[in-house]
Design a protein that fits this description.
There is one protein chain. The chain is α+β, with helices and mostly antiparallel strands. The protein has one domain. Helices cover 39% and strands 12% of the residues. It contains 5 helices and 2 strands, in the order H-E-H-H-E-H-H. Helix 1 packs across helix 5 and helix 2 runs antiparallel to helix 3. It is globular and about 55 Å long. The protein starts with 29 loop residues before the first helix and ends in a 7-residue tail after the last helix.
Length: 160
């Protein structure tokens, strides 16, 4: 079976919990922070400077089964639950919220699209040192993920 969700092992390296200092950037008003970050990234990647950059935010709800390999991701969070049990209350709460969401029949999503931008350079070839590499190989990729999901919930509950 091919793994869809890949979380590199630390194998003796740093382990970051949910209360990592890098997350502080997005604490407080997660929706405002996410919006600012997305728009800034799009403006930094303008393709044609004679035309405007357009950023579109679209929220929608769909069946959980439409979420790619959601059962695999659910199992990842279940494994995380075992790892963090009794070690960090904030991490435990975050993981439990994620499990609850992934077990629901429907999920809320936020699609963010931008136009007149270069796109995520390096994504096609997984080029090391590219914008893609900086995004997915960054030391604390959970920062953006947590802010995104908090923004998706729009204050209802904290979720992954």
């Amino acid at each position: 079976m091919t793994t869809y969700w890949n979380f590199p092992a630390t194998i003796g390296g740093n382990i970051n919990s949910i209360n990592h200092a890098g997350l502080e950037t997005f604490r407080g008003n997660a929706l405002e922070s996410l919006t600012r970050e997305i728009c800034q990234n799009s403006l930094d990647a303008v393709r044609d400077k004679t035309k405007p950059v357009i950023v579109e935010f679209k929220g929608f709800t769909t069946h959980t089964n439409n979420f790619p390999n959601h059962k695999e991701l659910l199992n990842v969070f279940r494994d995380c639950r075992v790892t963090w049990q009794g070690r960090n209350k904030q991490s435990e709460d975050f993981i439990e919220d994620a499990v609850q969401i992934l077990q629901k029949d429907k999920m809320q999503f936020l699609r963010i699209s931008d136009f007149n931008t270069k796109g995520l350079e390096g994504a096609k070839d997984a080029e090391l040192g590219s914008a893609w590499s900086s995004l997915v190989k960054r030391r604390v990729p959970l920062t953006r993920m947590k802010a995104l999901v908090e923004a998706l919930e729009l204050g209802n509950q904290r979720h992954f």
